[in-house]
Amino acid sequence: MYRWASCLMPYSTRILVVRHWGRCPTAQVCLREILLVSLLHRFGEDISTSMTINLLSQYPMRTLSVRAHTVPTARMRRAATAVVFLLLMLSGLGSHSACAAPAGRLLLSEVLFNPTADGCDYVELYNPSDTACSTAPLRFARITAAGTIGRLYSLGVPRSVPPHDYLVLTTDAAWLLSHFPKADASKVVEVDALPAWPNERGCVALVAAADSLMVDRLDYTADMHHWALRNAKGIALERRSFTTATAERSNWASASATSGGGSPTLPNSQQWQALELFALQPSDLFSPDGDGHNDELHILPSDLVATAGTNITVFDLSGRRVRQLCRNARLGSNEPAVWDGHSEQGTLCPSGDYVLLIEVYDPYGHTHRERKAVHLITH
């Protein structure tokens, strides 16, 4: 179930303090540290280099960062083995498989924490795996002011979430379905209670019921909504990508107006991968030979980036920067970025394939990067 993911073991390594992220109350962590220090004290000399042990299981990666007194390599291996067994014994890691669906885990997808006066909070979960995931071993958790896990909240009657599908939990399913008429009622679960998620800032935490191990967590603030929104009440925060970390603020955005302020049970309206932000004209190749036909490459922005700052840089296939076409530019449909096939030094680039790195960001800090390939022909 466990294996070494990475282990830097020079002649001497230091182990003294263990950090077990997303796991237990402070008192239990301190107990682990004290026992670990006692265990390793007899190996001691001077403090030297460091080591990181990653333990993998069916839950998210657990990282144990440990320091210790200097010891020869052979003794260090014995000490490291003792550390692993001690942590397994103290934290009950061996039982994690009973808490997680073997096929994968559910991720936070969408959160409405500031509903309208007649509405209620909801949270959407997504199954990014290729097999079904059960909600049975999961709970929502209230995170205390001290950062520890408080009361746990049931996800209602256990449900199996199909691969690449959504499940929404709320305290008022009737309101949600009336407010979002496109929502699929079969994917909405009404629960007795949810943690209190304040309007200004809070934490949405999904944990394993058996041991409170963190499965997914979003620390949100009201200013994660789009900077142009005058009133974010009734607007959900949507996740843009399920391959980008939940904690990445730029991975969250206000639901689009056309979606009604949210897309519960449906693909998120703000998924970056669903957006075509730029188009090339001509679409594949151009030839700056002065014949009046496809002499320039035009990079045309969509209306979605009308108020966003844009950087566009041309690279060759070796990764060398060829030309910076624009920096922090506000592009419009009538003012596209243009590449005439010349380099930064003003010389005509040789024929071949080039890559455009396009970076788009708004004043809040939402960032999107995409790459487009183009073929240049010179004679």
Which secondary structure elements does this structure contain, and how are they paired or packed?
Elements: E1 19-20, H1 26-40, E2 51-55, E3 62-66, H2 73-91, E4 107-112, E5 122-126, E6 133-134, E7 138-143, E8 149-154, E9 160-161, E10 166-170, H3 173-179, E11 188-190, E12 201-208, E13 214-221, E14 237-239, E15 252-254, E16 278-281, E17 285-286, E18 297-301, E19 309-316, E20 321-329, E21 337-339, E22 352-361, E23 367-376
Parallel strand pairs: 10-11, 17-23
Antiparallel strand pairs: 1-3, 2-3, 4-5, 4-14, 5-10, 6-9, 7-8, 7-12, 12-13, 14-15, 16-18, 18-21, 19-20, 19-22, 22-23
Helix pairs in contact: 1-2
Describe the structure.
Helices cover 11% and strands 32% of the residues. Residues 1-72 and 87-103 have low confidence and may be disordered. Strands 11-10-5-4-14-15 form a six-stranded mixed sheet, with no helix packed on it. The chain has a five-stranded mixed sheet with strand order 17-23-22-19-20, with no helix packed on it. A four-stranded antiparallel sheet has the order 8-7-12-13, with no helix packed on it. It is elongated and about 70 Å long. It is mainly β and 379 residues long. Strand 7 and strand 8 (149-154) form a beta hairpin. It has three domains: 19-98, no CATH class; 107-273, Sandwich (Immunoglobulin-like), CATH 2.60.40; 275-376, Immunoglobulin-like (Sandwich). The chain has helices spanning 26-40, 73-91, 173-179; strands spanning 19-20, 51-55, 62-66, 107-112, 122-126, 133-134, 138-143, 149-154, 160-161, 166-170, 188-190, 201-208, 214-221, 237-239, 252-254, 278-281, 285-286, 297-301, 309-316, 321-329, 337-339, 352-361, 367-376. The protein is built from three helices and 23 strands.
